[in-house]
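Hi support team,

I submitted a single chain yesterday and got back a structure, but I'm not sure I'm reading the token output correctly. Could someone confirm the output below corresponds to the sequence I sent? I've pasted both exactly as they appear in my results page.

Thanks,
R.
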Amino acid sequence: MIVDTATLLVCSRCSRYGVPAPKTSRAPRASLNVRPLPALRPSEPQLEVVPDYDVKVKKAREEQGLTQEVLAKLVGEKLSVIKRIEMGKLKPSLDLARKLEKALKVRLVEEPKTAKPIQQPRPRLELTLGDVAVIKDSGRKEVE
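Hi R., thanks for writing in. Yes, this is the structure output for that exact sequence:
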């Protein structure tokens, strides 16, 4: 269907606003900036930092006789980050939690105990040109 000067694929309701595109002619197509949808990956196990990470980190560090400064150097973080983690003011990222696990030999990352329901993708609604554009006919009257 050719609407104005663009070749569009439209529903039967919107086809009245254009003329059928010739089958052999290659009319110029309107250029849309459309990105393809990301490919669906197999579901990866969702991991999260344990709720009592602050107590575990501090206890393990003290049991090993490490200072906060030494622990910070072992995991490649600033001293202020370690302090905030031990005070419970900063939840470590999964990456940092893994480094702390390795340095302190404690478990800080686990699968959530309450299984989060897997969200099913919503069915796509079919949109027509009339749903996303205001079309004016030659009489300058808006058509809905």
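A quick pointer for reading it: The beta strands are 2-3, 6-7, 48-49, 109-110, 135-136, 142-143. Let us know if anything else looks off.

Best,
Support desk
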